[in-house]
Write a structure and sequence with these properties.
It is a single chain. The protein is of the alpha+beta class. The chain has two domains: 91 residues, Immunoglobulin-like, CATH 2.60.40; 112 residues, no CATH class. The protein is 50% helix and 26% strand.
Amino acid sequence: MNKIFIAIVSIAFLTACSEERSANTLEITGNIKGLTKGKLYIQKVQDTTLVVLDSIILNGKSNFNSTLKLESPEMLYLFVDRGVSNSIDNNLLFFAEPGKINIDTELEFFLAKAKITGSKNQELYEQYKAIVSKFNDQQLELIKSEILAPKATKEATKVENAKKQDLLLKRRYFYAANFALTNAKYEVAPYIALTDISDMNVKYLDTIQNAMSPKVAKSKYGKKLTAYLLERKK
């Protein structure tokens, strides 16, 4: 009887360990068209420094895979070592989360052609970036109009554009805050709060922090946002 009990407990323990490993496992697969020889690095930011989590050697094939332990969703980088190339188009940022993620891209347009699937946080972050890029375009148009303004109206244009820039910045901040609040059950919410609107009024950041689900609050960025707000309130 004791042997049966011990066997059952052992099986339960091994199953629990297996499920825990599975819950924290990130499987990355992908293909980089045009790259058949080279090296890839998967990196993350740790204490303001990029550290390598895995390195992958490509020799004859453009597809790759990697398996990592990931405690909670966070931003990682896929870096391609082009050897003699000095291109700045080398480091692809992606929002990783436990599970399976696939990254397909091209060597020539490493960032522009990247298609990342399997991560809900990545999907939401891409939606967010698409709108933010429109704010950036509007800002560039204002700068362009000021530069090209006739000399006679340049000063008036500068004053008017300053007002428009200020309004545009406010709109961008409130968009970011609203997006984070709407998606507070995902880790992308505290990430946006920390990276894009950390200097916003504390009451708005508080609202985002209070809206986070228990799971997000315990994540890497959820903890960082909570700690950051405590520091700002001192």
